From TrEMBL:
<keyword id="KW-1133">Transmembrane helix</keyword>
<feature type="transmembrane region" description="Helical">
    <location>
        <begin position="138"/>
        <end position="159"/>
    </location>
</feature>
<comment type="similarity">
    <text>Belongs to the binding-protein-dependent transport system permease family.</text>
</comment>
<keyword id="KW-0813">Transport</keyword>
<feature type="transmembrane region" description="Helical">
    <location>
        <begin position="69"/>
        <end position="93"/>
    </location>
</feature>
<feature type="transmembrane region" description="Helical">
    <location>
        <begin position="180"/>
        <end position="202"/>
    </location>
</feature>
<keyword id="KW-0812">Transmembrane</keyword>
<dbReference type="InterPro" id="IPR000515">
    <property type="entry name" value="MetI-like"/>
</dbReference>
<keyword id="KW-0472">Membrane</keyword>
<keyword id="KW-1003">Cell membrane</keyword>
<dbReference type="Pfam" id="PF00528">
    <property type="entry name" value="BPD_transp_1"/>
</dbReference>
<feature type="domain" description="ABC transmembrane type-1">
    <location>
        <begin position="70"/>
        <end position="260"/>
    </location>
</feature>
<feature type="transmembrane region" description="Helical">
    <location>
        <begin position="12"/>
        <end position="31"/>
    </location>
</feature>
<dbReference type="InterPro" id="IPR035906">
    <property type="entry name" value="MetI-like_sf"/>
</dbReference>
<protein>
    <submittedName>
        <fullName>Carbohydrate ABC transporter permease</fullName>
    </submittedName>
</protein>
<feature type="transmembrane region" description="Helical">
    <location>
        <begin position="105"/>
        <end position="126"/>
    </location>
</feature>
<feature type="transmembrane region" description="Helical">
    <location>
        <begin position="237"/>
        <end position="260"/>
    </location>
</feature>
Length: 274
């Protein structure tokens, strides 16, 4: 019993240390967003503000056209997330439950695309978007990311866990593939859809490099791009403005995760099981 208790205490200590390592930077970011600029630059850094101030948040809303940038980020993230949920679930269903020539080759292609770094396709994507006249448009920000190999793989693995007998029974009853997908399969995919939705929304909301290159005017900047451009001056970095903006950027992601965490955990636990 003593050995088991020591092992349990050691495990809790390790988990608490890991939790502190993960949560610590976010907690410091939150507290530092209320510090004066001098406190943020102090060495060694301090946790607790010597003086609480909202100046950085006032400056954030005064210097930036915050509603416009927030709306741009929300529009892009929502459209990209919706596109991934739709197209990745359709492709995953086809790869998991439909028998057609070339299915195995197509799945191997998806796996191969998972191993291709995003930077390899970045320049070709930009050239294609530019040649199509979609630069500095919402379409140019959204279209390249409406589906991805990870989402297809995730949905395919989850759909393999749905019994084939259930789909065959629907076919015997006269249901077509579209009706089977929308009325039978998709309602059973809530955990996988929640997982894919959270990961896609997080990736799209925090995406910086693609909007920086594609968006060329202020009215198309997303929040991370606008925050970086306005907080980093020619000779000085405004850390308080960056930290306040980072807190505002993190809040929507936390809300989405908290709203879908039950389905997210279930999706992570069951994806890939047969």
């Amino acid at each position: 019993m003593t050995r088991d208790r020591v092992a349990k205490i050691s495990l809790y200590a390790i988990l608490c240390a890991g939790l502190l390592a993960v949560v610590g930077p976010f907690l410091w970011m939150l507290l530092s967003s209320f510090k004066p600029e001098a406190d943020i630059r102090s060495v060694p850094p301090t946790w607790w503000p010597s003086t609480w101030t909202l100046d950085h948040y006032r400056e954030l809303f005064d210097r930036l056209d915050f509603p416009q940038y927030f709306a741009n980020s929300a529009i892009v993230a929502v459209l990209v997330t919706a596109g991934n949920l739709l197209f990745c679930s359709l492709l995953g269903y086809a790869l998991a439950k439909l028998d057609f020539p070339g299915r195995r080759a197509l799945f191997l292609t998806v796996l191969g695309m998972l191993m291709v770094p995003g930077m390899v396709t970045f320049v070709p994507q930009f050239v294609l978007v530019s040649n199509m006249g979609l630069a500095n448009t919402y379409a140019g920000l959204v279209l390249p990311f409406l589906a991805g190999p990870f989402g297809v793989f995730l949905m395919r693995q989850f759909l393999l866990s749905i019994p084939d007998d259930l789909i065959e029974a629907a076919r015997v009853d006269g249901a077509g593939e579209w009706r089977i997908f929308w009325r039978v399969v998709l309602p059973l995919c809530k955990p996988a859809l929640a997982t894919l939705g959270i990961l896609t929304f997080l990736s799209s909301w925090n995406n910086f490099l693609w909007p920086l290159v594609v968006a060329t005017t202020d009215d198309k900047y997303t929040l991370p791009v606008a925050l970086a451009l306005y907080a980093i001056g020619q000779n000085r970095i405004y850390y308080g403005l960056l930290l306040a903006g980072a807190v505002v950027v993190v809040v929507p992601v936390l809300i989405v995760f908290l709203a879908l965490q039950r389905h997210f955990m279930r999706g992570i636990a069951t994806t890939g099981l047969k």
